[in-house]
Amino acid sequence: MNEPVLKLFINGEFVDAENGETFESYNPANGTVVARCAWAGPRDADKAVNAAAAALESGEWPQMSAAERKGLILRLADLLKERLEDFAVMECRDAGALIGKARSDVALGVSQLKYFADMALKYDGEPRPVEGMQRPGRSFTYTVREPIGVCAQIIPWNFPITMAIWKLGPALATGNTLVLKCAPETPVSALNLAHLCKEAGFPKGVINIITGDAEVGEALINNPKVQKVAFTGSTEVGRKIMNAASRDMKRVTLECGGKSANIVLDDADPSIAIDGSLYATFFHSGQVCESGTRLLLGKSRHDEFVERMVERVRRMRIGDPMDPETTIGPVVSKQQMERVLGYIDIGRSEGARVAVGGRRADGNGLSNGFFVEPTIFTDVTNDMRIAREEIFGPVLSILKYDNVDEAVRIANDSDYGLAAGVWSADDEKARKVAMRLRAGWVWVNEWHVLAVSAPFGGYKQSGVGREFGEEGLNAYTEVKTIYQDDSKSRDKKFWYDVVVPRVS
Question: Which domain holds residue 422?
Answer without folding.
Answer: 261-444
